[in-house]
Amino acid sequence: MIFVSVGTQLPFERLIRSMDFWSEENPDKEVFAQVGKTDYTPCFMAFSEKLSPAEYTEKVNNADLIVSHVGMGTIITGLEHFKKMILMPRLAEMGEHRNDHQLGTAEKFSHIDSIVIVNSEYELKEAIDEHLSETRNNSVSTNVRTSPELINKLRDFIKTG
Prior knowledge:
By secondary structure, the protein is an alpha/beta fold. Helices cover 44% and strands 14% of the residues. The chain is globular.
């Protein structure tokens, strides 16, 4: 299952529309999206505006892949659960956020093997298709490991600002 999350603060219609179009082209793949407040209603994937913490954890646990904005909560959760993640930064110029801090965050995490950063709808589709192809061919391990030390440093950084 692919779990899509956009957080709860702001809409991210570019990501949700892209995933809905991808789902239309791949009806045999299970996709669930936490869409936040949005004017766009997905037609080809299951979704909910928000999830309780328990529901969110359940979706993460069941996911083979997480597709998300570049939110620290999602990144830390994905790393803690050893999940492959495809992250698309929100862009201020498109009205998706107040500034472009997600671009900087994306750059900082781009070196982690379990994280793929995409900057467009086309790159998102390509990254998902590549992940599914690799998984199907068993050419990469889906059991991604991240050091507990890195996760603790990230938690400390967020707490102290």
